[in-house]
Amino acid sequence: MVEKNGVVLVLSGPSGAGKSSLINRIADDIGDYYFSISTTTREIRDGEVDGVHYHFVDKEEFEQDIKDDYFLEYATVHGNHYGTSIKPVKEALSKGKLVIFDIDVQGNTAINNRLGDITTSVFITPPSLSELRRRLVSRSTDSDEVIDKRLKMAKREIQRTSEYDFLIINDDLDVAAEVLKQIAITARLKIPTDRINSFVQKWENI
Ligand code: GDP
Ligand code: ADP
Ligand code: 5GP
């Protein structure tokens, strides 16, 4: 599907676990990367910029994008649609970049099916459900009703931690950021299956 010179880092975890905060912390220390900007039908939050945090679209546009085969994967999360567009990801991979996805557990399954041999996945959790609630309330981007929905979802998402290569419990932000930085650096060393095969073949022919 793509020329695979680059590698993929998937980050998932409950809403409010600290994915965005952690990415911002490590951004300057992990070399050349591309952060995949998803398309979503969710309402834009205060402080979010269209085209920076997400491409915000309505349901009709999203459905048209599905028909046009625009997405590498898409899913419905907390009642909103989210999707990863193929084109910029392909471009970034062909340039050998580390491509970072902040996607939900369904997205991780899809990416692993399509790009598993170049993917490293990390599940990020808060230290407790009560701390998660506190963070979502103090972030003040979501209504009480939305927060309740996200907390309920958190319990279900955490059940799928075993599908990931690494787990980071985001208690102390500095410690969690240092661990994520090391994982991101190591993710670049992942060797795709075709390169391993040609390496082995070369040795067979000596
Ligand atoms: P946050 O979790 O509070 O940052 O809230 P968001 O609205 O930014 O994200 C909601 C959920 O959708 C999270 O679980 C994201 O990881 C997930 N998500 C965001 N973009 C994508 C995407 O392109 N594909 C998939 N599958 N999930 C996404
Ligand atoms: P996500 O992107 O996973 O939804 P955010 O990065 O938006 O999560 O973090 C949710 C809220 O929790 C933000 O207000 C953020 O400042 C705060 N936060 C993140 N990590 C920590 C931490 N280790 N300790 C305390 N607060 C945190
Ligand atoms: P939020 O609405 O809080 O920004 O995101 C809610 C959830 O949607 C998060 O868990 C986030 O990782 C996930 N999400 C965001 N974009 C995508 C996407 O393109 N695909 C999938 N599958 N999930 C996404």
From TrEMBL:
EC numbers for this chain: 2.7.4.8
Keywords: ATP-binding, Cytoplasm, Kinase, Nucleotide-binding, Transferase
InterPro entries named in the record: GK/Ca_channel_bsu, Guanylate_kin-like_dom, Guanylate_kinase, Guanylate_kinase_CS, P-loop_NTPase
Domain Guanylate kinase-like: 6-185
Molecular function GO terms recorded: ATP binding; GMP kinase activity
Family recorded in the similarity comment: Belongs to the guanylate kinase family.
Coiled-coil stretches: none
Keyword Phosphoprotein among record annotations: no
Domain of life: Bacteria
Family matches, as Pfam families: Guanylate_kin
Protein name, per record: Guanylate kinase
Catalytic reactions on record: GMP + ATP = GDP + ADP
Entry function: Essential for recycling GMP and indirectly, cGMP.
Subcellular location: Cytoplasm
Gene name as annotated: gmk
Binding of ATP, residues: G13, P14, S15, G16, A17, G18, K19, S20
Source species of the chain: Sulfurimonas aquatica
GO cellular component terms, A-Z: cytosol
The organism's taxonomic lineage, starting at the top: Bacteria, Pseudomonadati, Campylobacterota, Epsilonproteobacteria, Campylobacterales
